[in-house]
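Collaborator request, handled under Task 6.
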Amino acid sequence: MIARYAGGETGARAAARAGSVAVVVDAFRASTTIAVLVSKGARVIPVSSIREASEAEADFRIGERGSAKVAGFDFGNSPTEIQASEIPRGSTVVLSTTNGTRVVEAAAGAPSVLTGAFVNAEHLAAELADGSYGDEIVAIGCGWEGHRFSEDEAAAGAILHHLRERGATLDERGAWAAGRYLERAAGPLRSSPLRANRAARRLIRLGYEPDLDFCLSEDTLPVAPLLTGGAFSGRETRSRGS
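Structure tokens returned to the collaborator:
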């Protein structure tokens, strides 16, 4: 198995063209929010535009622009808010975010599209490692409006690191991303420099500091969200270390 790293919509399209499994990583916060929703038994329809989200048939609408909740939607893209909410199992949720859902859309031609973050990195790697999804995997750090963001590089690196532990070969950029994760994993991620990067400061300014603690917690959600029929759903993954 070969595992690679790529960035943004360009990297997602390239992964799809190459026929690789695409793992979309938007740690602050879309991939984390999707993991929470899937763990609650919801189906999550990712769309790139607010208009699409407004017009879609869904039980709940979740969205943000510039990290702030979209007016009129049920929730912003806040994993802590959604974790505490009463979203019944079997609900259909439509989700639109500034970056993550656009990258998912760019990856849509890949044979399999999954989402990953710190909260499910090791569990997701365990799910991918047996090769049942494919033998070439690309972890795609979403970034922010075309710019690299350190939390997505590190979260993608966490997935790649755990894949390497399970026998995958990393390409040069994959090894670099895994190194970015390991540089930050010497202590608890929740006290790492990732809490002070530009994305984190924006969330704190908007009152979402609890989301940072949630997003920087490792392997708390044993799910592997998979895009099937236009919606993410999933099942609990095999246990850690298996």
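The cover message to the collaborator said: "The CA atoms of residues 76 and 184 lie 28 Å apart. The longest helix spans residues 150-165. Please let us know whether this matches your experimental observations."
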